[in-house]
Specification:
The structure is a homodimer. Chain A is mainly α. Chain A contains 15 helices and 2 strands.
């Protein structure tokens, strides 16, 4: 990967710090095997602590800090984002869905715990996302606003809707408009919620929250474009999952529709639009760095 | 069934009214096919409007009214209870779980829409439960308290935990303590949340909310005991699902452990304990009627 124009070691430290903050909180908040239902606790922790980058929490923190807020207020929300993301990965990997054996370099949940436990571990994480967000966020009005933002992003008009459209598009005729809706739903909605929610937690006004939402939407679209490129060009070792799976499943991707170079160019455009959206904020630096990171990531 | 000592036609009218209230709200709040993702909207509505009794909403309303509150405040919560209940039925029926073909007299979701859509319809209902509850409950502090109660009941220490323990107990050695934990988790926790939440929505103080919770816990245990009895004695026509399924799956039930009569006697005891718990409330009449209804139901 090309070196970053900004200080990439500072960004690496920022990501590591965000990861540690959210993982410390999750370790405290998630059930342990001694809490009963040890196999469920084990399955929950297996998937949550599987070495994810914690990009959504980092984006929520960076959004809160971009408006002069305190990341501590956003920690329960960051945990909830990661739990929703993790539940969706477990369910996506199921045999009835994408039927994946490998995730983040390890066997998928249903390969280790069986399908029934994988379904239930996903359901448990899904419930806990809302439970933790609502219980741990001090201010009730903020807790409610963040819960609504999370539900909107994860539900019918967001992630789940995008998954359904993704399934429907397999083996179908490529269609750019449908592809945009799929990317927006299955990937960008939750990333958009991360930055909007970070702004809410940081005390931003409505216009600023909208600007952060625009950043998240563009960045989420870029993220999915890069994902589609990496599925073509990446190795199993770097990706931690099986590459070439999209093509094999006849998934509708920008790569299939327009080719690798067009997908890379679109990702560049989305990243530029994301950066433009937050240019006027008090402290946009980390959001800018994270946008470059999303475009240049190799896994 | 034996006639009720209380006026059973009044209770029937109460249940019908509660059902209509919650179904009118759900019809307004759930996505329609015109909202995009038509197959997902169809799957969501297929399971939500499948002719359920809406017992949990009725219990939430009766709890609010037992403390002199207004059921209108509890409507979003009642919708959320029904959505969580419905998502859990869809996932329970999946081939990897109980593998049921029939639910409420109709083919199960995965039989009609396929496994992938059934998983996603369940996930969508699960998210919408929290979204609707948080968005539609006017008071943020109440919304948060109800969301926490719902998450506690549905998650690791409640419904999902009970399901996992239920799966683990199949083909195992019967154990009365384990059986109690299964019933409490997979069934009673959500019914307990219904009555606690109804009390919260009705403005009850903490001790009264606890009394309503004790009622719900006992009633939920009775409900599951009756369910186990009906699985042995009921017909497919009355139940709307395949009877004898528990025995076939070697499920751990009180019927298997202690026999039909002992299960019926335990249900009577739990109903009596439920009624006792709310005897001191201002208006316990409907809760008393509903407790008798749970014991005497035949489907």
């Amino acid at each position: 990967m090309a070196a970053q124009p900004t200080d990439s070691s500072a960004l690496r430290a920022y990501l590591d710090d965000a990861k540690q903050t959210v993982e410390t909180a999750l370790d405290r908040l998630l059930p342990a095997e001694a809490d009963g239902a040890p196999r469920l606790a084990e399955a929950v922790r297996y998937s949550v602590f599987a070495g994810g980058k914690r990009l959504r929490p980092a984006l929520a923190f960076a959004a809160a800090e971009a408006v002069g807020g305190d990341r501590a207020v956003a920690v329960p929300f960051a945990c909830a984002l990661e739990l929703v993301h993790t539940y969706s990965l477990i369910h996506d990997d199921l045999p009835a869905m994408d039927d994946d054996d490998l995730r983040r370099g390890r066997p998928t949940s249903h390969k280790v715990f069986g399908e029934a436990h994988a379904i239930l571990a996903g359901d448990c994480l899904h419930t806990m996302a809302f439970g933790i967000l609502l219980r741990e966020t001090q201010d009730a009005t903020l807790a409610r606003a963040l819960g609504v933002a999370l539900a909107d992003a994860a539900g019918f008009a967001g992630m789940v809707g995008g998954q359904v459209e993704d399934l429907a598009a397999e083996h179908g005729t490529p269609n750019a408009e449908q592809l945009y809706r799929i990317h927006r739903g299955k990937t960008a909605a939750l990333i958009q919620a991360a930055t909007r929610g970070g702004g809410l937690a940081g005390g931003a006004d409505a216009a600023t929250v909208d600007a952060l939402g625009a950043y998240g939407l563009h960045l989420g679209l870029a993220f999915q474009l890069v994902d589609d490129v990496l599925d073509e060009t990446g190795t199993a070792e770097a990706l931690g999952k099986t590459p070439g799976k999209d093509r094999q499943d006849e998934k509708l991707t920008v790569v299939a529709l327009e080719g690798l170079e067009a997908a890379r160019e679109r990702a560049r455009q989305e990243v530029a639009a994301a950066i433009e959206a937050v240019a006027g904020l008090p402290h946009p630096e980390r959001l800018v760095d994270l946008a470059h990171f999303v475009r240049e990531r190799d896994r």
